Amino acid sequence: MLRELARRSVDELLSQPGEKLRIVDLVRVVALKVSLRFLFNAPGNAISSERLTEYLILIGQRINDLWILSKDKTKPLLEWSSPSNAGIHKALIAVCASENADKADETDPLNPETNPMNWLLPAYETMWRVVLACVIELRFRNAENANIWCKTLEEYINNTSREKFKGAPTTSGVRGFCVRDIVKEALRLYPPTRRVNRRFTEDGDDVKADIEYCHRSNAEDAFGPDSLCFRPERWLDIRTHSGLEKDEDIKMIEEERGFMPFAESCPAGQSATQGFGLKMIALLAGALCERLGECKGWDLENKEAYQDLRKPLPSDRAAFDSVYLIKRI
């Protein structure tokens, strides 16, 4: 079960020797383990051993580094087959290894058709940074309602029912505060794709869309004066104000406000799959918040730098690469 895998993965990392752990490594490894289990049915020994945990840390860091390098227009694009990527190739083979040796060639990083990154990037890369931001917001920024948010997530991973995720209907017909509100707020303030750039070959024009700017708009018909604050309750306010009940109607209202964490034609944005993506974020963030709460003594290094709740967390890809969880006791 993915829920138990997520919990166990957090426990394994927090119980390792040492007094500090990079928070990005914790989140990336847990997200990668769940993704590998779901996408490739990776065997238990391929995602639990200490050696292969090191491979997962390498994969997570290298994916992030390559993404940053790809945006640097002053340097030539690094080829995936480059010898400098040999480390991640080896790591991918190790963690995606099938229990059936005859199927080993089904996850060849150098074969464009069987490269596991074809599946891993859309599943993992669009998820882990949202989970990271959500965990920091709930566990380490000391917001007034943080304990309520954490409890809501923790209750969900213990009971992944439809009503726990979408909220119980109230007398007005509008569903109450729920897990989905927390996930939507994380996606709003920290969208997986911050900006989209497209070049149209017919006329050579570049078209840019700033998703992050739209999500943080303080216009009254968008997200209001506290648009830079993490406040999941705003989604209940939107539902209550609209008086709508059906998911498709609510989604239309949200899009009119500028909420578009997934492209219209993206599989993750379709009604049949969007719920799954949001639930995975809830599961991962819930497991991390739960175990960090139960494993006493772990605190975020220099968390004072993130206590101004009027401002969002830094969203640069490398913003938390040097931030550690510190074991105080």
| Gross geometry | globular
Return residue spans where pLDDT drops below 50 for at least 5 consecutive residues.
Answer: none
Strand order in the largest sheet: 1-5-4
Q: Average the pLDDT over all residues and give the rounded result.
A: 86
GO molecular function: heme binding; iron ion binding; monooxygenase activity; oxidoreductase activity, acting on paired donors, with incorporation or reduction of molecular oxygen
Secondary structure elements and their pairing?
Blueprint: H1 2-14, E1 20-22, H2 23-40, H3 44-48, H4 50-70, H5 86-96, H6 117-125, H7 128-140, H8 146-158, H9 162-166, H10 179-189, E2 195-199, E3 206-210, H11 211-215, H12 233-242, H13 247-256, H14 271-294, E4 298-300, E5 324-327
Antiparallel strand pairs: 1-5, 2-3, 4-5
